[in-house]
Amino acid sequence: MPSVAICILNYNGLSLLQHYLPIVTQHHQPKDIYIIDNCSTDECVSWIQKHYPEIHIIQNTENLGFAKGYNEGLKHIQADYYVLMNNDIRTTPNWLEPIIQWMELHPEVAVTMPKLLDDKTPEKFEYAGACGGFIDILGYPFCRGRIFLSLEKDENQYDNIQEIFWATGACMVIKSKIFWEVGGFDDDFFAHMEEIDLCWRIKNIGYKIFVLPFSSVYHLGGGTLNKTNPQKTYLNFRNSLLTLIKNHPQKYLFFKVFLRLILDGIAGIKFLLEGHGKHTIAVIQAHLYFYKNFSKFWKKRKEFEQKHSFKYTFNPVFKKSIVIQHYLLGKKKFSELQI
Fold first, then answer.
1. CA–CA gap between residue 125 and residue 115 (Å, rounded)
2. 19 φ, ψ (degrees, to nearest 5)
3. Shortest CA distance to 184 belongs to which of 99, 110, 289, 250?
4. Count of Cβ atoms closer than 10 Å to residue 334 Cβ
5. Is the pTM of this model over 0.90?
6. Strands 33-37 and 171-175, bridge-based pairing
7. β-bridge partners, 114
């Protein structure tokens, strides 16, 4: 059997660990669990050491965010599979073993995810990944079971095994060799959408991403940055543009970036009219970062091209605009999109 490491990134998550870690240890041996701590200032490390001495603790020297935090921590973990899991995930009995068995039978698949349900409202999908991630023709992300803020009830409508475009960083199973083959997460993303960038790079070199809904876990969500935080708006708008620049085929790339900049501007005006001026400022700051650092990320694109022989891919992708479909045509369910 392949070796598997349960890797949980943590920053000041004492209350979350106290609630969720006992559940995780019911389903996994503590010796297989690794807590990557981003220099927490609460008592979470001492609490883990006291209550779960067999759990491995890897301590980063500062808060490196999601992307670099994982990259630095995973350098110290030897396993065939990494299970990247937020500290607010409620696992379920025997959720992981069938995933590993399935991936062993499918060498072309590098990343999978289980069905992600809301721990607060268990009958609904959870925002961070629902039942598998997609992107539209302009690179906007959405999920089976979640379009923007519209969350569907899980009525087993998406229980088929499905190739997807991206798997959620909240609970992702990835072959470690391929993780490092593409260079891991992009440190500069800090947090948010780094898993989409990672999955796209993995797809570009020929591997596939799948959701395996025969397995499910529950996610609390919003433990670090919730949707009302302008910093989350900044990271999402910024990192979405950077993901396009790094990974999209060059044909139509700059036209799509131009359209995205316009749509971002409209979103900024919408924030302002709704009384959320700080989010408007966050969009502006995201664009300023994009302009200032464009050459840096274009260089990353070219360096990746030099290291790997591949053809840029853009499938499976929704061939229309999810913005138009949702906000103008009122489509709130993935099943209405005719993908």
1. 8
2. -85, -45
3. 110
4. 23
5. yes
6. unpaired
7. 212
